[in-house]
Amino acid sequence: MQSRPLEGIRVIDYSHFLAGPYVGRCLAAMGAEVIKVERPGTGDAGRQHAWFVGEHSGYFLQLNMGKKGLSVNTKDPRGRALMQKLCDSADVFVENYRPGALDKLGLGYAELAARNAGLVYCSISAYGHTGPDAHRAGFGLIAEAKSGIMQMVGTPGEAPPLLRISLGDMYTGIHAVAAINAALLGRVKSGRGQHIDMALYDTLVSMHEYAIQCYTLSGGNEVPVQTGHDMPTSTLYGVFRAADGDLVIAAQVDDAWKRFAQMLESNGGPAGFAANARLHTSAGRNAHRLEILSVVKPWVAQRKVAQLLALCDAIDVPAAKVQRIDEVLADPQIQARGMLVEQNHPVLGRIQLPNLPFRFSACDTTIRDVAPELGEHNESIAASLGFSREEIAEMQRDGVLFSKPATAPAKVGT
After folding, report:
1. Mind telling me the catalytic residues?
2. How many C-beta atoms surround the C-beta of residue 408 within 10 A?
3. Cα(23)–Cα(136) distance, integer angstroms
4. Pairing assessment for the beta strands 340-345 and 349-354 based on DSSP bridges
5. What pTM does this model have?
6. Rounded distance between C-alpha atoms, residue 251 and residue 241, angstroms
7. Per-residue pLDDT tens for 278-293?
8. Three-class DSSP labels, 22-80
Protein backbone atom coordinates (compact mmCIF):
# COMPACT_ATOMS: atom_id res chain seq x y z
CA MET A 1 0.00 0.00 0.00
CA GLN A 2 1.17 3.50 -0.79
CA SER A 3 1.15 6.31 1.75
CA ARG A 4 -1.94 8.49 1.77
CA PRO A 5 -1.70 11.46 -0.62
CA LEU A 6 -1.53 14.25 2.00
CA GLU A 7 0.93 12.69 4.43
CA GLY A 8 3.44 15.29 5.55
CA ILE A 9 0.90 18.14 5.23
CA ARG A 10 0.05 19.96 8.48
CA VAL A 11 -3.44 21.46 8.76
CA ILE A 12 -4.65 23.85 11.44
CA ASP A 13 -8.39 23.37 11.89
CA TYR A 14 -9.48 26.59 13.59
CA SER A 15 -13.15 26.02 12.81
CA HIS A 16 -16.30 25.00 14.60
CA PHE A 17 -19.59 23.19 14.13
CA LEU A 18 -19.84 21.69 10.62
CA ALA A 19 -18.38 23.03 7.35
CA GLY A 20 -14.85 23.67 8.61
CA PRO A 21 -14.57 20.52 10.76
CA TYR A 22 -15.80 18.46 7.79
CA VAL A 23 -12.96 19.88 5.70
CA GLY A 24 -10.48 18.88 8.42
CA ARG A 25 -11.90 15.39 8.63
CA CYS A 26 -11.57 14.90 4.87
CA LEU A 27 -7.98 16.13 4.86
CA ALA A 28 -7.15 13.86 7.80
CA ALA A 29 -8.57 10.90 5.88
CA MET A 30 -6.23 11.77 3.01
CA GLY A 31 -3.27 11.60 5.39
CA ALA A 32 -2.77 15.16 6.62
CA GLU A 33 -1.84 15.87 10.23
CA VAL A 34 -4.86 17.90 11.35
CA ILE A 35 -4.65 19.87 14.58
CA LYS A 36 -8.06 20.81 15.94
CA VAL A 37 -7.78 24.10 17.84
CA GLU A 38 -10.55 24.89 20.32
CA ARG A 39 -11.32 27.60 22.84
CA PRO A 40 -10.75 26.75 26.51
CA GLY A 41 -13.70 25.63 28.59
CA THR A 42 -16.43 24.48 26.21
CA GLY A 43 -14.40 23.95 23.04
CA ASP A 44 -16.05 23.66 19.63
CA ALA A 45 -19.81 24.36 19.80
CA GLY A 46 -20.25 21.02 18.05
CA ARG A 47 -19.41 19.32 21.36
CA GLN A 48 -22.80 20.52 22.63
CA HIS A 49 -24.75 19.12 19.64
CA ALA A 50 -26.84 15.92 19.81
CA TRP A 51 -26.73 12.92 19.64
CA PHE A 52 -25.16 12.41 23.08
CA VAL A 53 -23.77 9.34 24.79
CA GLY A 54 -23.03 10.53 28.28
CA GLU A 55 -21.21 13.82 27.72
CA HIS A 56 -19.87 12.82 24.30
CA SER A 57 -21.44 14.29 21.18
CA GLY A 58 -21.76 11.95 18.21
CA TYR A 59 -21.81 15.06 16.03
CA PHE A 60 -18.35 16.05 17.28
CA LEU A 61 -17.03 12.49 17.13
CA GLN A 62 -18.09 12.17 13.50
CA LEU A 63 -16.64 15.46 12.28
CA ASN A 64 -13.36 15.44 14.20
CA MET A 65 -12.07 11.89 14.03
CA GLY A 66 -8.42 11.49 13.14
CA LYS A 67 -7.37 14.91 14.49
CA LYS A 68 -5.09 16.03 17.30
CA GLY A 69 -6.61 18.29 19.95
CA LEU A 70 -5.22 21.65 21.11
CA SER A 71 -7.11 24.03 23.41
CA VAL A 72 -5.44 27.43 23.76
CA ASN A 73 -6.45 30.89 24.93
CA THR A 74 -5.45 33.05 21.95
CA LYS A 75 -6.38 36.23 23.85
CA ASP A 76 -3.41 35.65 26.14
CA PRO A 77 -0.15 36.86 24.52
CA ARG A 78 1.48 33.50 25.22
CA GLY A 79 -1.39 31.66 23.59
CA ARG A 80 -1.29 33.98 20.61
CA ALA A 81 2.46 33.45 20.25
CA LEU A 82 1.96 29.68 20.38
CA MET A 83 -0.75 29.85 17.70
CA GLN A 84 1.35 32.01 15.40
CA LYS A 85 4.30 29.65 15.81
CA LEU A 86 1.99 26.73 15.06
CA CYS A 87 0.76 28.49 11.92
CA ASP A 88 4.34 29.15 10.86
CA SER A 89 4.77 25.35 10.72
CA ALA A 90 1.51 24.74 8.86
CA ASP A 91 0.64 24.12 5.23
CA VAL A 92 -3.09 24.76 5.56
CA PHE A 93 -5.27 26.88 7.86
CA VAL A 94 -9.05 26.34 7.89
CA GLU A 95 -11.50 28.72 9.59
CA ASN A 96 -15.21 29.46 9.39
CA TYR A 97 -15.68 32.63 11.40
CA ARG A 98 -17.35 35.84 10.27
CA PRO A 99 -15.00 37.81 7.98
CA GLY A 100 -12.58 39.92 10.00
CA ALA A 101 -13.08 38.09 13.30
CA LEU A 102 -9.66 36.40 13.26
CA ASP A 103 -7.83 39.58 12.26
CA LYS A 104 -8.39 40.79 15.83
CA LEU A 105 -6.55 37.74 17.15
CA GLY A 106 -3.59 38.08 14.80
CA LEU A 107 -4.81 35.03 12.88
CA GLY A 108 -6.10 36.67 9.71
CA TYR A 109 -4.70 35.72 6.32
CA ALA A 110 -2.57 38.84 5.81
CA GLU A 111 -0.70 38.47 9.08
CA LEU A 112 -0.18 34.72 8.86
CA ALA A 113 0.84 34.83 5.18
CA ALA A 114 3.40 37.54 5.96
CA ARG A 115 5.05 35.05 8.32
CA ASN A 116 4.42 31.93 6.21
CA ALA A 117 4.23 32.67 2.48
CA GLY A 118 3.42 29.07 1.63
CA LEU A 119 0.29 28.94 3.78
CA VAL A 120 -2.96 27.90 2.09
CA TYR A 121 -5.61 29.72 4.12
CA CYS A 122 -9.23 28.62 3.63
CA SER A 123 -12.09 30.75 4.93
CA ILE A 124 -15.68 29.50 4.96
CA SER A 125 -18.52 31.89 5.71
CA ALA A 126 -22.17 32.44 4.86
CA TYR A 127 -21.65 35.11 2.20
CA GLY A 128 -17.90 35.30 1.60
CA HIS A 129 -15.41 38.08 2.28
CA THR A 130 -16.71 40.51 -0.36
CA GLY A 131 -20.09 41.94 -1.33
CA PRO A 132 -22.76 43.87 0.60
CA ASP A 133 -23.68 40.90 2.82
CA ALA A 134 -20.13 39.85 3.73
CA HIS A 135 -20.58 41.11 7.30
CA ARG A 136 -23.77 39.13 7.92
CA ALA A 137 -23.91 35.94 9.97
CA GLY A 138 -25.54 32.88 8.51
CA PHE A 139 -25.90 29.12 8.55
CA GLY A 140 -26.62 26.46 5.97
CA LEU A 141 -30.35 26.99 6.47
CA ILE A 142 -29.99 30.63 5.44
CA ALA A 143 -28.07 29.72 2.28
CA GLU A 144 -30.59 27.00 1.40
CA ALA A 145 -33.42 29.52 1.63
CA LYS A 146 -31.68 32.33 -0.26
CA SER A 147 -30.25 30.08 -2.99
CA GLY A 148 -33.62 29.16 -4.49
CA ILE A 149 -33.17 25.48 -3.68
CA MET A 150 -35.65 25.41 -0.81
CA GLN A 151 -38.32 27.19 -2.86
CA MET A 152 -38.38 24.35 -5.41
CA VAL A 153 -38.96 21.45 -3.03
CA GLY A 154 -42.15 20.34 -1.33
CA THR A 155 -45.82 20.27 -2.16
CA PRO A 156 -47.39 23.14 -4.13
CA GLY A 157 -49.26 25.52 -1.87
CA GLU A 158 -47.37 24.51 1.27
CA ALA A 159 -44.30 26.01 2.92
CA PRO A 160 -41.10 24.27 1.77
CA PRO A 161 -39.83 21.55 4.12
CA LEU A 162 -36.51 21.56 5.90
CA LEU A 163 -34.03 19.49 3.92
CA ARG A 164 -32.94 17.65 7.12
CA ILE A 165 -29.34 17.37 5.91
CA SER A 166 -26.84 20.21 6.05
CA LEU A 167 -26.55 20.60 2.30
CA GLY A 168 -24.94 24.05 2.36
CA ASP A 169 -22.25 23.14 4.88
CA MET A 170 -21.34 19.75 3.45
CA TYR A 171 -21.35 20.83 -0.19
CA THR A 172 -19.27 23.92 0.62
CA GLY A 173 -16.96 21.77 2.72
CA ILE A 174 -16.15 19.32 -0.06
CA HIS A 175 -15.64 22.22 -2.49
CA ALA A 176 -13.18 23.64 0.03
CA VAL A 177 -11.35 20.31 0.14
CA ALA A 178 -11.00 20.41 -3.65
CA ALA A 179 -9.82 24.03 -3.60
CA ILE A 180 -7.26 23.35 -0.85
CA ASN A 181 -5.79 20.43 -2.75
CA ALA A 182 -5.61 22.54 -5.92
CA ALA A 183 -3.86 25.34 -4.02
CA LEU A 184 -1.37 22.87 -2.55
CA LEU A 185 -0.64 21.58 -6.05
CA GLY A 186 -0.26 25.13 -7.35
CA ARG A 187 2.16 25.87 -4.51
CA VAL A 188 4.52 23.23 -5.88
CA LYS A 189 5.17 25.50 -8.88
CA SER A 190 4.76 28.96 -7.32
CA GLY A 191 6.14 28.31 -3.85
CA ARG A 192 3.34 30.44 -2.43
CA GLY A 193 0.01 29.71 -0.81
CA GLN A 194 -3.13 31.78 -1.17
CA HIS A 195 -6.42 32.73 0.44
CA ILE A 196 -9.44 30.61 -0.50
CA ASP A 197 -12.73 32.41 0.12
CA MET A 198 -15.66 29.95 0.25
CA ALA A 199 -19.27 31.06 0.77
CA LEU A 200 -22.21 28.79 1.57
CA TYR A 201 -24.50 30.99 -0.52
CA ASP A 202 -22.17 30.89 -3.56
CA THR A 203 -21.84 27.14 -3.38
CA LEU A 204 -25.56 26.43 -3.34
CA VAL A 205 -26.22 28.85 -6.18
CA SER A 206 -23.56 26.99 -8.19
CA MET A 207 -25.37 23.73 -7.46
CA HIS A 208 -28.33 24.55 -9.71
CA GLU A 209 -27.97 22.19 -12.64
CA TYR A 210 -31.24 23.32 -14.18
CA ALA A 211 -33.03 26.25 -12.55
CA ILE A 212 -30.66 29.08 -13.50
CA GLN A 213 -30.14 28.09 -17.12
CA CYS A 214 -33.89 27.45 -17.38
CA TYR A 215 -34.54 31.04 -16.31
CA THR A 216 -31.78 32.77 -18.24
CA LEU A 217 -32.18 30.86 -21.51
CA SER A 218 -35.94 31.38 -21.50
CA GLY A 219 -35.49 35.12 -21.29
CA GLY A 220 -36.76 35.12 -17.71
CA ASN A 221 -40.03 33.40 -18.55
CA GLU A 222 -39.44 30.08 -16.76
CA VAL A 223 -39.15 30.01 -12.98
CA PRO A 224 -39.01 26.50 -11.45
CA VAL A 225 -41.66 25.98 -8.79
CA GLN A 226 -42.69 23.29 -6.33
CA THR A 227 -43.93 20.18 -8.08
CA GLY A 228 -44.35 17.71 -5.24
CA HIS A 229 -43.23 14.19 -5.99
CA ASP A 230 -42.09 14.28 -9.61
CA MET A 231 -40.36 16.53 -12.17
CA PRO A 232 -42.47 18.03 -14.97
CA THR A 233 -39.39 18.20 -17.21
CA SER A 234 -38.44 14.54 -16.66
CA THR A 235 -41.39 12.19 -17.08
CA LEU A 236 -41.41 9.54 -15.66
CA TYR A 237 -39.11 10.39 -12.76
CA GLY A 238 -40.26 10.67 -9.17
CA VAL A 239 -41.53 9.24 -5.90
CA PHE A 240 -44.49 6.86 -5.84
CA ARG A 241 -46.51 5.33 -3.01
CA ALA A 242 -46.91 1.57 -3.10
CA ALA A 243 -49.16 -0.59 -0.93
CA ASP A 244 -46.51 -1.01 1.77
CA GLY A 245 -44.09 1.88 1.33
CA ASP A 246 -42.59 4.37 -1.07
CA LEU A 247 -40.19 3.98 -3.97
CA VAL A 248 -38.59 6.05 -6.71
CA ILE A 249 -38.72 5.18 -10.39
CA ALA A 250 -36.47 6.70 -13.07
CA ALA A 251 -37.95 5.87 -16.48
CA GLN A 252 -37.40 9.28 -18.05
CA VAL A 253 -35.11 8.12 -20.88
CA ASP A 254 -36.94 7.12 -24.09
CA ASP A 255 -35.81 3.49 -24.20
CA ALA A 256 -36.36 3.01 -20.46
CA TRP A 257 -39.83 4.51 -20.78
CA LYS A 258 -40.80 2.12 -23.57
CA ARG A 259 -39.65 -0.88 -21.51
CA PHE A 260 -41.49 0.42 -18.45
CA ALA A 261 -44.71 1.10 -20.37
CA GLN A 262 -44.64 -2.37 -21.90
CA MET A 263 -44.01 -3.96 -18.51
CA LEU A 264 -46.84 -1.99 -16.95
CA GLU A 265 -49.23 -2.98 -19.75
CA SER A 266 -48.22 -6.63 -19.37
CA ASN A 267 -48.92 -6.51 -15.63
CA GLY A 268 -52.41 -5.14 -15.46
CA GLY A 269 -51.97 -1.70 -17.00
CA PRO A 270 -54.27 -0.34 -19.73
CA ALA A 271 -54.05 -1.87 -23.19
CA GLY A 272 -52.26 0.23 -25.80
CA PHE A 273 -50.26 2.18 -23.21
CA ALA A 274 -46.87 1.07 -24.54
CA ALA A 275 -47.82 1.69 -28.17
CA ASN A 276 -48.92 5.28 -27.56
CA ALA A 277 -46.48 7.15 -29.83
CA ARG A 278 -47.29 10.47 -28.16
CA LEU A 279 -45.37 9.22 -25.12
CA HIS A 280 -42.28 7.92 -26.92
CA THR A 281 -40.35 11.20 -26.68
CA SER A 282 -39.36 13.29 -23.69
CA ALA A 283 -41.30 16.28 -24.94
CA GLY A 284 -44.39 14.14 -25.50
CA ARG A 285 -44.24 12.57 -22.05
CA ASN A 286 -43.78 15.96 -20.40
CA ALA A 287 -46.75 17.35 -22.32
CA HIS A 288 -48.93 14.43 -21.21
CA ARG A 289 -47.43 14.06 -17.72
CA LEU A 290 -50.75 14.17 -15.84
CA GLU A 291 -52.20 11.54 -18.14
CA ILE A 292 -49.23 9.26 -17.45
CA LEU A 293 -49.40 9.83 -13.69
CA SER A 294 -53.13 9.02 -13.68
CA VAL A 295 -52.19 5.55 -14.95
CA VAL A 296 -48.93 4.89 -13.10
CA LYS A 297 -49.91 6.07 -9.62
CA PRO A 298 -52.89 3.76 -9.08
CA TRP A 299 -51.03 0.85 -10.70
CA VAL A 300 -48.13 1.32 -8.25
CA ALA A 301 -50.49 1.76 -5.29
CA GLN A 302 -51.93 -1.72 -5.81
CA ARG A 303 -48.56 -3.46 -5.53
CA LYS A 304 -45.89 -3.94 -2.89
CA VAL A 305 -42.47 -2.31 -3.09
CA ALA A 306 -40.56 -5.60 -3.47
CA GLN A 307 -42.73 -6.67 -6.39
CA LEU A 308 -42.33 -3.33 -8.13
CA LEU A 309 -38.56 -3.36 -7.68
CA ALA A 310 -38.37 -6.87 -9.11
CA LEU A 311 -40.41 -5.83 -12.14
CA CYS A 312 -38.21 -2.77 -12.76
CA ASP A 313 -34.98 -4.72 -12.24
CA ALA A 314 -36.10 -7.29 -14.80
CA ILE A 315 -36.36 -4.62 -17.50
CA ASP A 316 -33.30 -2.58 -16.37
CA VAL A 317 -35.26 0.48 -15.25
CA PRO A 318 -33.65 2.13 -12.21
CA ALA A 319 -35.84 2.03 -9.10
CA ALA A 320 -35.25 1.99 -5.36
CA LYS A 321 -37.14 1.79 -2.11
CA VAL A 322 -37.25 5.00 -0.05
CA GLN A 323 -35.26 3.63 2.88
CA ARG A 324 -35.14 4.54 6.56
CA ILE A 325 -31.74 4.97 8.19
CA ASP A 326 -31.89 1.51 9.80
CA GLU A 327 -32.49 0.00 6.36
CA VAL A 328 -29.60 2.01 4.91
CA LEU A 329 -27.18 0.68 7.53
CA ALA A 330 -28.35 -2.89 6.93
CA ASP A 331 -28.02 -2.54 3.14
CA PRO A 332 -25.48 -5.10 1.85
CA GLN A 333 -24.19 -2.54 -0.66
CA ILE A 334 -23.36 -0.03 2.08
CA GLN A 335 -21.72 -2.76 4.13
CA ALA A 336 -19.70 -3.99 1.16
CA ARG A 337 -18.47 -0.46 0.46
CA GLY A 338 -17.30 0.03 4.05
CA MET A 339 -19.50 3.07 4.60
CA LEU A 340 -19.57 2.49 8.35
CA VAL A 341 -16.32 2.95 10.23
CA GLU A 342 -15.78 1.22 13.56
CA GLN A 343 -13.62 2.87 16.20
CA ASN A 344 -12.55 1.95 19.72
CA HIS A 345 -13.27 4.92 21.93
CA PRO A 346 -11.42 5.00 25.28
CA VAL A 347 -14.63 5.91 27.14
CA LEU A 348 -17.50 4.74 24.95
CA GLY A 349 -15.99 1.50 23.72
CA ARG A 350 -16.85 0.35 20.21
CA ILE A 351 -18.63 3.00 18.16
CA GLN A 352 -19.81 3.16 14.56
CA LEU A 353 -19.93 6.33 12.47
CA PRO A 354 -20.42 7.07 8.76
CA ASN A 355 -17.31 6.74 6.63
CA LEU A 356 -16.22 9.13 3.90
CA PRO A 357 -16.77 8.11 0.26
CA PHE A 358 -13.13 8.32 -0.84
CA ARG A 359 -11.82 5.13 -2.45
CA PHE A 360 -8.18 5.13 -3.56
CA SER A 361 -6.71 2.10 -5.31
CA ALA A 362 -3.40 2.20 -3.45
CA CYS A 363 -4.22 3.42 0.06
CA ASP A 364 -6.90 3.20 2.75
CA THR A 365 -8.47 6.47 3.88
CA THR A 366 -10.63 5.02 6.65
CA ILE A 367 -9.95 6.91 9.89
CA ARG A 368 -9.51 4.63 12.91
CA ASP A 369 -8.46 7.30 15.44
CA VAL A 370 -11.30 8.82 17.44
CA ALA A 371 -11.93 12.54 17.83
CA PRO A 372 -9.72 14.10 20.51
CA GLU A 373 -10.79 15.10 23.97
CA LEU A 374 -10.58 18.84 24.55
CA GLY A 375 -6.89 19.78 24.63
CA GLU A 376 -5.79 16.14 24.57
CA HIS A 377 -2.56 16.82 22.67
CA ASN A 378 -1.60 20.18 24.19
CA GLU A 379 1.74 19.02 25.57
CA SER A 380 2.98 17.13 22.51
CA ILE A 381 1.99 19.92 20.11
CA ALA A 382 3.59 22.65 22.23
CA ALA A 383 6.73 20.55 22.65
CA SER A 384 6.93 20.02 18.87
CA LEU A 385 7.03 23.81 18.49
CA GLY A 386 10.03 24.10 20.80
CA PHE A 387 8.36 25.10 24.06
CA SER A 388 10.15 23.78 27.13
CA ARG A 389 8.57 21.52 29.73
CA GLU A 390 8.58 24.43 32.18
CA GLU A 391 6.90 26.80 29.71
CA ILE A 392 4.22 24.23 28.93
CA ALA A 393 3.58 23.58 32.63
CA GLU A 394 3.27 27.33 33.25
CA MET A 395 0.77 27.77 30.41
CA GLN A 396 -1.26 24.85 31.67
CA ARG A 397 -1.24 26.24 35.21
CA ASP A 398 -2.37 29.66 33.99
CA GLY A 399 -5.10 28.31 31.73
CA VAL A 400 -3.39 29.36 28.50
CA LEU A 401 -3.45 25.68 27.58
CA PHE A 402 -6.65 23.97 28.67
CA SER A 403 -7.50 20.30 28.80
CA LYS A 404 -10.51 18.36 29.97
CA PRO A 405 -10.13 14.75 31.09
CA ALA A 406 -12.33 12.06 29.63
CA THR A 407 -15.65 11.61 31.43
CA ALA A 408 -16.78 8.44 33.16
CA PRO A 409 -17.57 5.50 30.88
CA ALA A 410 -20.97 5.36 29.25
CA LYS A 411 -22.57 2.72 27.08
CA VAL A 412 -23.45 3.49 23.49
CA GLY A 413 -27.19 3.43 22.95
CA THR A 414 -28.16 4.53 26.48
Report:
1. 169
2. 7
3. 22
4. antiparallel
5. 0.94
6. 16
7. 999 999 999 999 999 9
8. HHHHHHHHCCCEEEEEECCCCCCHHHHCCCEECCEEHHHHHHCCCCEEEEECCCCHHHH
